[in-house]
Amino acid sequence: MRHICIRGIIGLVWLIAAIVCGGSGRFSMMGFAIILAGAFLYSAYAAWKKEKDGKGGR
Prior knowledge:
Distance between the termini: 12 Å
Number of helices: 2
Structural class: mainly alpha
Number of strands: 0
Radius of gyration: 14 Å
Helix content: over 70%
Shape: elongated
Strand content: under 5%
């Protein structure tokens, strides 16, 4: 369960970075941060869903 929380936190950090980059006008970095945030948040969701359904590796 800890790895899911860590992935979610990393995703939120990248999302905040995207917001900061967008506010400062660095739109090329904003797109990169949004892609990374989406990747980490999706991986956290997929791992959470797998564990919730009882298909975890344990």
